[in-house]
Design brief:
heterodimer, A: about 600 residues, Glutaredoxin, Rossmann fold, Ubiquitin-like (UB roll), 5-stranded mixed beta sheet, 23 helices, 18 strands, B: about 800 residues, alpha/beta, 4 domains, 7-stranded mixed beta sheet, globular
């Protein structure tokens, strides 16, 4: 028996901010005190709050330590583990709390969250099947073994579960279609090819609770009559793949995978297929082609995978988060519990990855129907540096931006669609006044342009031309007719592309034009980028009245383009300035302004 | 399922479920543009030019892949549709060189045509364009990928239809391209130069070198002919401008090659224009050939023939016919030789196909491919043994690929991997020389597991008991030891073959060349009899021959013991029939065979020899000393050919003949299909069609033959040949006819032995060389490589063609 369990976040986010060094230091300290055997250390799943990682949660004391460094471990061991006293210094502190917060329930980031999918993440050892089972794992699957296919599909339909991969198709209906497709061989495929820039929901689930995916897939297999599954996981997720492999081995050892599972005559073989990083392989038909060993290119539908999928057999393909929801629904009383959360059309929760100009970057799971305001200000802690919120990009490169006037929009599939965005996989990139919307559209389009598979004409050739126009606009070479051309190109690409990638990739352009047309026009007509991003289209100027002559900017400038004596107002030599932005970051007086090129007029930042 | 009714552009139509909107529209005569659509390939939906508007649908739909739905209302030319098509064209044109003035494709370029149709003169988009360098690496075609619009048809054809897998899409996004792996050149890829990519490219990205600068589409007339190389008899369109063949494309509407060719058909015809074509008759005088007039040459021949006949008798004269000649030429040739009073007429038809012919004669009572090439696509299982069709008869390999795509089981038995190995569910790398043991073991397993077709055996065959006893003498373990194939593999292969509703066997010259070839043919016949795979569609034995008219020349009676239609010389009724028609007596004794004569050396009874289009001196690659000796000892040698071959060099008189594109006539392919080949250009100089030369010579020899043209010859032949009796040029025009075709209302015979074998019952034969020691020194059963994709038996044509540049080893 252990005295305490210490859950160190071992997910990719915290690992990259040094959690394995923290773990090493912790072990060293425990050994120094000769008490290592009394404590269970787990490199666990992601609790979501990446912004303040690396994290350790101590159970049963329920203490949440954040922003840990290896050198903190001596104190943590000595004071807390040996002395029984909480190390106040390492607790969460922030402008949103009056006093250091001790546990999840007192940290505002967690206050509006609802852990369904992330129920085990950070709480159990993801490499222990026993801990998963102790938390009720595989109980839904054993219940499903006693149910017939129709009933399982019916329950999933009743729960109103919609695909978490983006399009929001009814999961139960999809299963039912595959179940009804006549074939002696069927497949279950898990789409773990999370490719949107800034999205890592699926990775966290895979790393933090791999058995939930296996269980969801097993239930699906039982429902549709499949005996084989594939998890298509991008090779850039080595930890997820390692944990999945462990989970599969353990499940096989426990007789939860393989032949005649639990004596029910149900067989299921699970395979992992590592993807090589093409974004388009997240599109289901391209993904299936890739598993088959072909070049990952989409094919037209119909036939849908439910009719003719992997190797030509009926196939259900769902995303990671969708499968992770399934055990919650199929467990005893699951449907009733599940439908309590969410809106009429969108049941349950959704995991979002918060990124961009937001204070609390990280992962959050919130009930469907929560407003953007709540996510940004309550969960996300507001905009970094106290600047004004401008817009949020929802749904990654296939999604669209939602401007501040829609900040009270409830987040569910249908509202987002109406606003010109999509739920997508759940990436939320938050933008403030220093984000240029032309540049944002350009960024996402350059991504999709590179990742277009090249098969269909509109996507291959059209996105290139759109990108060229956006490049021109951001270089000050825009023409008045460009917006119409962009609009008509975007419309025909959406209208005539082969797959979801092409049909949605103009969305960032269309939605930024829809909500920020004036910004485009300002770029084209006045050659001015108000956000100070498009380097050809603005100057930095120092407001002489505000400048105190602190020389911070002078020191920061890498090209010596700022002159001025101490205590005297400084001046920027425009010929030398590269508009790198170092000065504006350093200026404490807020006196560096973004002004149009060649203009003396003050334009307030 | 019931028919689907939909409305397209205001017109109602009923279609079968599964019909695409495009197909439905085409049924209504509505022309929807397409780049990437090809009915032979899986649905693609890439180019999007075929988009149409479906009422109530969110986006435009690609009509080439969208199935027609009940009560659908479709608009194929609404403003939204036209705008979308213009946008697509504009995008394509923005990244496509507009060098239409000099582009080879101008006039038959789909991009050009559609831009014209939709009024897209120039792109509204400007920006980066592809700047790739041409791939000029190979001798056959130029790839200018700047013109490629990435429709993907070439990729589909190369991978799915041909199986070469030389090209695929590479890279992503705007820089996506089509090409070999690792940006290799085509020359360094697995390309087999079948040319299908060229023929299916909608734009000018792929251009055959032979056409460069040669002419515009509207200047070209197309003449339909039959490929002169192998026995498949692919139909080609010869592109002619100013009496010169400047290109070849496959005919798409005939059942033989259905739009497909191999390197020989696509590129191998340029020997027509070879500088060493014979253009005038030549007479050897003091060891030197002199050009002479036709009169002089024919008079000299007539004098010499008369002299030999007078001095030594008719049987000192012999004719040797090539399996490359037309039916008309070979028919007249044997008529001429026989009219001279001898049956000494033979052809090289038997040189390497005797085992196949003999084996089938024994088992069935006649010898020919039992089924049609096109039926292969629908068969349930295919056993390929001692053959490499991808190398020897590529079109057959295309059909095998199609069959496997349609779900057929493929069993390949060969010591080495062949072109179809990658596709085979059952690959049996047996020891060399053990093919008979393997086939017998399969028969044993079929009987042991009760998979034989007992009803067929009882009703249609004889000799089963002895056969069963013979194959049962050896255990599977014995067979496994002899063949090197494990019991499980043997069993699963046997089950795959016997378990199919219809199963076919393919074996090519490998069987025929090998010493034990005859035994293998019999063993294969046993296997087909055992499983009832004869006398029905998509089953049977496919033992394709080598040369293009090998079947026809045999049918025409260019053989020492039979007249046309295999009617025996020794039968008086037969002789009488021909005598009446020919107005001449027919010798009742069978003539000498070429094999007998050519090995008789100095003691040969033959003094005068007339050789048609054949080069026995270097028949199988090397110079044959014995043959040279025989030829040198002749009193008089006549050679009629298109080139100065090694054999012609030994002749006393050489007659310049027309090549395949220069004459009209018929060829009979290996599936017994008689096909019309037409004249596209004039023969060079004073060369004449072979049949006309023979008819002219007959006059000089005192016979009164009058033929208006080759169809006259054909009609005479059909009147004497029961298998051909119902045929005429008129009836052969489009699909040809397969013999037997006994009457004018008979549709021809695709499948032999329905209801009855030629000999009555099919005969099981004990082929018992199970004990043959497996040895790698024995003649390889995979000697199919002798029929290299680029050559036929005698390489006199191919070595004068660009295809001689293709030397890749078989088997890849």
């Amino acid at each position: 028996m252990y005295e305490k369990h210490l859950m160190i976040c071992g997910a990719t986010g915290c690992l990259s901010s040094g959690s394995s060094q923290v773990e090493e230091a912790l072990i060293e300290e425990l050994e120094k005190h000769g008490i290592k055997d009394k404590y269970r250390l787990v490199m666990g799943g992601c609790p979501g709050f990446c912004e303040v990682g690396p994290l350790i949660v101590v159970y049963p004391d329920e203490v949440f330590y954040s922003r840990l460094k290896p050198k903190d471990m001596a104190e943590l061991v000595e004071k807390h583990l040996v002395g029984g006293e909480i190390v106040e210094r390492l607790l969460y502190k922030g402008p949103d709390v009056d006093a250091p917060a001790r546990f999840y329930d007192t940290i505002p980031f967690y206050a509006k969250q609802k852990f369904n999918v992330l129920r085990n993440s950070g709480l159990i050892d993801p490499e222990s099947i026993d801990e998963y089972i102790m938390r009720g794992g595989y109980r839904a699957f054993t219940r499903a073994l006693n149910m017939d296919s129709t009933t399982i599909c019916e329950e999933v339909k009743q729960a109103g579960l919609r695909g978490r991969g983006g399009a929001g198709f009814s999961t139960g209906l999809k299963w039912e279609l595959t179940y009804k497709a006549p074939s002696s061989k069927k497949y279950v495929v898990c789409n773990a090819d999370e490719g949107d820039p800034g999205a890592f929901m699926d990775r966290s689930i895979l790393e933090g609770d791999p058995h939930a995916i296996l269980e969801g897939m097993l239930i699906c297999g039982r429902a549709i009559g499949a005996d084989e599954g594939y998890i298509y996981c991008r090779a850039e997720y080595p930890l997820a793949i390692k944990r999945l492999k462990t989970a599969i081995e353990d499940a096989e050892r426990y007789g939860l995978l393989g032949e005649n599972i639990l004596g029910y005559g149900f067989n299921f073989k699970m395979n992992i297929k590592e993807g090589a990083g093409a974004f388009v392989c997240g599109e289901e038909t391209a993904l299936l082609a890739s598993i088959e060993g072909k070049r990952g290119m989409p094919r037209p539908r119909p036939p849908f995978p439910a009719q003719s999928g992997l190797f030509g057999k009926p196939t259900t393909i769902n995303n990671v988060e969708t499968f992770a929801n399934v055990p919650l629904i199929v467990k005893e009383g699951g449907v009733d519990e599940f439908v309590k959360v969410g809106t009429d059309g969108s049941k349950g929760t959704k995991v979002f990855a918060l990124a961009g100009k937001i204070r609390n970057t990280g992962l959050c799971e919130v009930p469907m129907g929560i407003t953007i305001r709540e996510i940004i200000y309550d969960v996300g802690g507001g905009i970094k540096g106290g600047r004004a919120f401008k817009a949020v990009q929802a749904g990654g490169p296939s999604g669209g931006c939602i401007p501040d006037e829609l900040i009270d929009l409830p987040i569910d599939y249908d509202s987002l669609n109406q606003a010109g965005a999509i739920m997508g996989s759940g990436g939320l990139v938050v933008m403030d006044e220093r984000t240029c919307m032309v540049d944002l559209a350009r960024y996402f389009l350059s991504f999709t342009q590179k990742e277009s598979c090249g098969k269909c004409t509109p996507c291959r050739e059209g996105t290139k031309r759109m990108l060229e126009i956006l490049n021109r606009i951001s270089e000050g070479l825009g023409k008045p007719e460009d917006l119409d051309t962009l609009d008509s190109l975007a419309t025909s690409i959406k209208d005539s592309s082969l797959c979801g990638l092409g049909q949605t990739c103009p969305n960032p352009v269309l939605s930024t034009i829809r909500y920020f047309r004036n910004e485009y026009e300002e770029h084209i007509e006045e050659h001015f980028c108000r956000a100070g991003v498009c380097k050809e289209l603005f100057n930095y100027r120092i407001d002489e009245e505000k400048c105190t002559g602190c020389t911070a900017c002078v020191k920061a400038c890498p090209v010596d383009a700022i002159k001025g004596e101490k205590k005297e107002p400084h001046e920027i030599i425009q010929e030398l300035c590269t508009r790198c932005g170092s000065c504006i970051e350093k200026c404490r007086q807020d006196c560096i302004m973004i002004t149009p090129v060649g203009s003396e007029a003050d334009v307030s930042n | 399922m019931s028919a689907i009714e939909l409305t397209i552009d205001g017109k109602k139509i009923e279609v079968e479920p599964g019909t695409t909107i495009l197909e439905a529209a085409r049924q209504l005569g509505i022309d929807i543009p397409t780049f990437c659509y090809d009915p032979e390939l899986p649905s693609n939906g890439a180019c999007r030019i075929c988009v149409v508007e479906v009422e109530k649908a969110r986006a435009l739909v690609a009509s080439c892949v969208a199935p027609a739905g009940s009560d659908m209302v479709v608009h194929t030319a609404s403003e939204r549709v036209i705008n979308a098509r213009r946008a697509i064209l504009s995008l394509l044109v923005a990244n496509h060189p507009l060098d239409c003035i000099t582009c080879e494709k101008t006039g038959e370029c789909k991009l050009q045509d559609y831009c014209y149709r939709y009024g897209v003169a120039d792109s509204e988009f400007s920006g980066e364009v592809k700047e790739l360098s041409d791939d000029d690496s190979n001798a056959f075609f130029v790839r200018d990928m700047n013109k490629c619009i990435l429709c993907g048809i070439c990729v589909g054809k190369c991978q799915d239809v041909i199986g070469a897998g030389a090209i695929d899409f590479t890279k992503r996004g705007f820089v996506a391209n089509v090409g070999p792996a690792f940006e290799d050149s085509i020359e360094d890829s697995t390309c087999v130069f079948c040319g299908l990519c060229i023929d299916s490219c909608p734009v000018g990205a792929l251009i055959p070198k032979y056409s460069l600068g040669k002419g515009r589409p509207w200047e070209i007339t197309k003449t339909r002919a039959v490929c002169p190389y192998c026995s498949i008899g692919c139909n080609v369109n010869l592109h002619v401008k100013a009496n010169e063949v400047i290109g070849v494309t496959p005919v798409e509407t005939n059942p033989v090659n259905r739009g497909h060719l191999c390197i020989k058909g696509k590129f191998g015809w340029d020997y027509l224009k070879s500088g060493d074509r014979l253009t005038r008759p030549l007479i050897k005088s003091n060891g030197v050939f002199l050009e002479v007039s036709w009169e002089e040459a024919l008079a000299l021949i007539a004098d010499n023939i008369d002299e030999v006949k007078t001095r030594y008798g008719s049987d000192a004269i012999m004719g040797l016919c090539s399996p490359k000649t037309t039916n008309e030429e070979s028919y007249l040739f044997q008529k001429l030789i026989r009219s001279l009073g001898t049956n000494n007429v033979d052809s090289y038809t038997r040189h390497c196909h005797a085992p196949a012919v003999d084996g089938m004669m024994e088992a069935f009572g006649s010898a020919a491919m039992t089924n049609s090439i096109e039926e292969l696509s629908d068969t349930g299982a295919i056993l390929v043994v001692a053959a490499d069709p991808a190398e020897s008869h590529p079109v057959i390999s295309y059909r095998v690929r199609e069959a496997v795509r349609n779900g057929a089981q493929l069993i390949v038995a060969d010591p080495e991997p062949i072109g179809l190995t990658d596709l085979a569910q059952h690959y049996l790398p047996l020891y060399e020389g053990s093919a008979v043991a393997l086939v017998n073991a399969m028969a044993y397993i079929i009987i042991e597991e009760g998979l034989q077709d007992q009803a067929f055996i009882d009703k249609r065959t004889e000799g089963y008991a002895a056969f069963k006893a013979a194959v049962s003498k050896y255990s599977i373990q014995d067979a496994a030891e002899v063949t090197g194939i494990g019991e499980e593999e043997l069993r699963s292969a046997a089950r795959a073959y016997a378990g199919a509703e219809k199963a076919a066997i393919i074996s090519t010259v490998g069987a025929n060349y090998s010493a034990a070839g005859g035994g293998l043919v019999l063993a294969l016949a046993n296997l087909a009899l055992l499983t009832g795979n004869l006398g029905k569609e998509s089953a049977g034995l496919y033992l394709p021959y080598g040369e293009n008219n090998l079947q026809g020349v045999s049918d025409m009676g260019a053989l020492p013991a039979v007249l046309s239609g295999y009617q025996l010389v020794k039968e008086k009724a037969v002789r009488d029939k021909f005598s009446r028609s020919w107005k001449t007596e027919i010798n009742q004794n069978a003539g000498l065979s070429a094999a007998e004569v050519f090995t008789s050396g100095e003691n040969s009874a033959i003094k005068a020899l007339y050789i048609l289009d054949e080069n026995p001196v270097t028949c199988i690659g090397e110079e044959n000393v014995e043959t040279v000796q025989f030829l040198a000892n002749l009193d008089f040698l006549i050679v009629q050919d298109i080139f100065m071959t090694e054999t012609a060099a030994l002749a006393d008189v050489i007659l310049p003949a027309a090549a395949f594109a220069e004459q009209e006539g018929t060829y009979t392919n290996t599936e017994r299909r008689v096909q019309l080949t037409r004249q596209a250009v004039n023969p060079p100089g004073e060369a004449f069609p072979g049949w006309a030369i023979i008819a002219e010579l007959a006059g000089w020899l005192g016979f009164e033959w009058i033929y208006d043209g080759p169809s006259d010859v054909f009609d005479e032949m059909t009147s004497l040949t029961p298998q051909y009796a119902g045929m005429s040029y008129e009836r052969l025009k489009t699909r040809g006819l397969q013999w037997p075709c006994p009457s004018e209302d008979h549709p021809g015979t695709a499948v032999l032995y329905e209801g009855r074998f030629s000999r009555g019952l099919g005969l099981f034969t004990v082929v018992d060389d199970q004990t043959a020691v497996p040895s790698r020194t024995e003649i390889s059963v995979s000697s199919a490589a002798a029929y290299h994709a680029c050559q036929c038996q005698s390489d006199s044509m191919s070595k004068r063609s660009v295809i001689n540049n293709f030397k890749r080893d078989s088997g890849r």
